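Hi support team,

I'm opening this ticket because the web form for multi-chain structure prediction keeps timing out on my end. I have pasted the exact lines I submitted so you can reproduce it. The total is 1044 residues across two entries, so I didn't expect it to be a heavy job. Is there a limit I'm missing, or should I split the entries? Thanks in advance, R.K.
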Amino acid sequence: MAQAVHLSRLTPISFLERSAAAFPARLAIVDGERRLTWGALRERVRRLAVALQESGLEKGDRVAFLAPNTTELLEAHYGVPAAGGVLVAINTRLTADEVAYILSHSGARALVADGSLAHLADGAPVERVLTCGEDGDYEQFLASASDGEPEDRLESEDDTISINYTSGTTGRPKGVMYTYRGAYLNALAEAVHARLDSRSVYLWTLPMFHCNGWCFTWAVTAVGATHVCLRKVDPPLVWTLIEDERVTHLNGAPTVLVMLTSDSAAHRLERRVLVTTAGAPPPPAVIERTEALGFEINHVYGLTETYGPITICEWNPAWDELDVGERARLKARQGLCMLTADPVRVVDSELNDVPADGKTMGEVVMRGNNVMKGYFGDEAATAEAFRGGWFHSGDLAVMHSDGYVDLRDRAKDIIISGGENISTIEVERALVRHRDVLEAAVVAIPDEKWGERPKAFVTLRPGATITADELLAFSRETLAAFKVPSEVEFGELPKTSTGKIKKYELRERERARRAQLTSSPA
Amino acid sequence: MAQAVHLSRLTPISFLERSAAAFPARLAIVDGERRLTWGALRERVRRLAVALQESGLEKGDRVAFLAPNTTELLEAHYGVPAAGGVLVAINTRLTADEVAYILSHSGARALVADGSLAHLADGAPVERVLTCGEDGDYEQFLASASDGEPEDRLESEDDTISINYTSGTTGRPKGVMYTYRGAYLNALAEAVHARLDSRSVYLWTLPMFHCNGWCFTWAVTAVGATHVCLRKVDPPLVWTLIEDERVTHLNGAPTVLVMLTSDSAAHRLERRVLVTTAGAPPPPAVIERTEALGFEINHVYGLTETYGPITICEWNPAWDELDVGERARLKARQGLCMLTADPVRVVDSELNDVPADGKTMGEVVMRGNNVMKGYFGDEAATAEAFRGGWFHSGDLAVMHSDGYVDLRDRAKDIIISGGENISTIEVERALVRHRDVLEAAVVAIPDEKWGERPKAFVTLRPGATITADELLAFSRETLAAFKVPSEVEFGELPKTSTGKIKKYELRERERARRAQLTSSPA
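Hello R.K., no limit was hit. The queue was backed up. Here is the completed structure from your submission:
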């Protein structure tokens, strides 16, 4: 009987097959002037897979892509696995050295680079480089494919479909392996939570190279919605596309929301747009300002190691009655596991759950189908990350009595002052509540008496005139005295390509400044 | 590394766990006067599972339920598998003998019967009978459970979660085995296609004993929507509940739509209700009348062996422009595979695809995650059904050029007249187009010259005065002459408990009548 009954393996490639069958003539991709139907996209994907196999790609070989959010990078999410390869989508804002490290570490056989990034592909340690764009050879490569379907090389749904390198804010980036099964299940959960359907239009404000676009590369395709590509988060262009393409969904870190809502093109939406946000805990004030324009926010949380989002702050309709600030505060919590994920836990160093009291901090740990298979070529780091059978996020949080996780800090960001923990997120939120403040980042600075003290780096809105003392006085209204920053510095904040504030750079800058002060003659 | 990384098995029990965590105080079930929150439902399920284990249930033991759509039957979909048992939900309109056959064939150790059906449980061949309702002992059984969680006995996601007996219109019913994995994946697909979310309200017009309610027992729970129980499709009550409980979704065979739309309480809806319909190909006229009241129809198709629905007629927005009749005709097609299913095929007797010409008939065959594991205790029937590696539906269809399947007949219903195939569905549709016709069923009658000829059994709307000749003349407008029925008989149509017309009974009745005519003195 086992032989009689066929169980299909879970693979997101089936999503493209289905949408190409169901909606062959409907719009799959808008990419600048270019518009492709599902039928045309499927044909390009078939050609990519066949051409890769015909050029000698073998099962499990890595194929790297270095591109902004383009048609080519989207089709790579289907064509590379359809050929039996493993997709390595590389962060486009890395240096040539960093790119070379990832190519070399992943052992990629080929690199496909967008024309705009050709300089990063020079001398890349791969057998073959293909370039997209007018003068490139990628289209020729697709055209070289024979007729017929690629050979199916999927052996198990637990095969690796992609490797996503961590941003490597500390140390060398690690290669996070996703499986076909995990990608499939996470994509379905994203589709349900974002209420995607075949009439949705998804704008690519989130980089596809970031956790495979939180699996929206696959989720949007699963329902046959339209992908609208975007090379760069250019706020006026985003506002134009929202209207012109009738966008219904977009994703991004809270800083993307700040950019959009503070842009001069910002206006109240005529139709609701669902924004899924993650990447850093969104300050309640940012949620409030964004929703005031007619966006609806799904606040989710995750890491590269969890295929992007793994929790969602599910909204309780009873909260509709609360005032706007309280609503935003509740929505700023990270919430609970998404539909296809296992429940996440907040634990002490012995892997015991901390009390669900909203006060006791512990580390967020996860496991299940929406957690990576491991770090590529690094069994030691994998074993360390999964000690006790749970993936250790390095994020510190409290568990509320309603079972919602609320992040307090990255383990490495928390400030310990006079033996007390100070959550930098809490201090940042207290500052961003002020309407003159656009963004804030708080880091620890050394202090002789207290060990560490908080220092705030703050970006003000254009035209704001508030002084540091006034801002500190304002923060005292909601913060315990020992949490009020000892110093405030105004200016731009350094950010990663995915919009996360580089706190380690602020700490570095601070350390360098202090070293200089100490060594300078008094 | 394999040990470090935990892959969770797919089980729909996780949907209840998640909704109980996310929405503990929100309404899970409305069942007459009774209202239960997700927290309360989870506690009842825990008690059921623990009580079953404490009463000696072992892994894989069958537990039968005989109940209309009640809280108890819904909780059985979680409590029985949570105990490691296999749920056998029995059709409530069977005779005591038929129920006894299923109990005996499935080897059920226990039977839980609704008080209203206690007469069917008398002398049931099981170790223990529990009865729900005021004088029953089911609540006491739940109350007997110890504290703590049931022992987790799931070994593999391919374990059997339920056995659903076919209606057995010919021969003895067969026990169709569903797996945890199949139930989970089908439920997710249903949730996406029906656009269910946590604010949805689902009315149980479809029996839960029928393919586990097409897996909506699990799908509605997955998103934390509200289940509204219903003991019987009582059209005025349905109309009342739609308004009072703010119903957003319901499912049913086309006959349910006929009952609802022809009821005197029928009126234009204030809010759209999504109706998922299957069980028989809906005549375009029925679709048209239903949508005119503000329902939106998802037309799906499947069998008990495919967890209920496996295809959906995905709507192409280009069709919005067509006239209402043409739209209904397009929507009456069975369409293509649902999101988590494998593509279905229409094949000849050698398993070759028939041409996608909308004309060549073949058999619909399926395989994949949304197809049963096999028939319980019947390897021969399983092997026969899966010959060539594909499940043979026994349904005849054509494949259109756009890849949509369009059912023509059950293999056993098709009429062969003078060497030509006549699709009884096509003839029925031609009759139901007439506004005086409520429903029609066409079957073969023996004919000396042609071998077989179509005979129509027709139910007219109240007050209709059309004659048989007038109806035949009307049908000639759209049917080829050889397809026009040779006889018409007006009256009620015999139906199964799930609303399917019992064509075999019409054929039997006809055979008996003819035998009598032949043997009677002239």
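A quick check on our side: The radius of gyration of chain B is 23 Å. Let us know if the file doesn't open in your viewer.
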